[in-house]
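Supplementary notes for students who missed Thursday's class. We covered one full example, reproduced here. Read the sequence, then the structure, then the short commentary at the end.
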Amino acid sequence: MSGFGAGRALRRVGLLLLTLLFGTAAGADEARPAAAAVPGFQALFLAGPNLYSGGPPDRASLEKLRDMGLRHVIDLRPAEPGMETEAAWAAELGLSFRRLPVRGAEDLTPEMVRRLDQELATLKGEPVLVHCASGNRSSALLALRASWIEGLPPEEALRLGQRGGLTKLAPAVRKALGLPASEAASTVSLPATSCVSASSGTPDAAAGCP
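Structure (token representation):
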């Protein structure tokens, strides 16, 4: 088998593994929300068919995801010195990379949700990672999109975000979704989707992992 053919076969196997981990698009309604750990990430979360969110990948994990079928990366972190590295990694690996800066609660707006949805629409359903620094902002924005664009009930959209890493922005998301304030929801952080250390690929004891 040629190198090109072997690469395609590897990507097909990778996509099959992602399907087994995260569920199929056809079963998204029944399986949603679902989450599974991917080595090299602190958390990787399925927010919809071929739509993943989490914290920033290192080059090795980005390459592994590319080999498993990932095609696009959307970084929600505002540009800062040194952040060019991930864009360079993406270019080396043949992935598209774009930045949609979300600073915090002030950017959880209908306009920002529309901008994200428009970016996703241009990708035509191909696998994409939407990430920030921890999964908090990406899960917040995707929770709002799930409700405002896709029609998911507010309570379910909030749970989807929480399972994907929504923590400090939970009160802002509740308010945006028209849900009553909850002291417990704003002060208690849910467990991370995964306890895998981004640096070692092993359970992170510092994060309270077993």
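Commentary. The mean pLDDT is 77. The chain is about 45% helix and 10% strand. If anything here is unclear, bring it to office hours.
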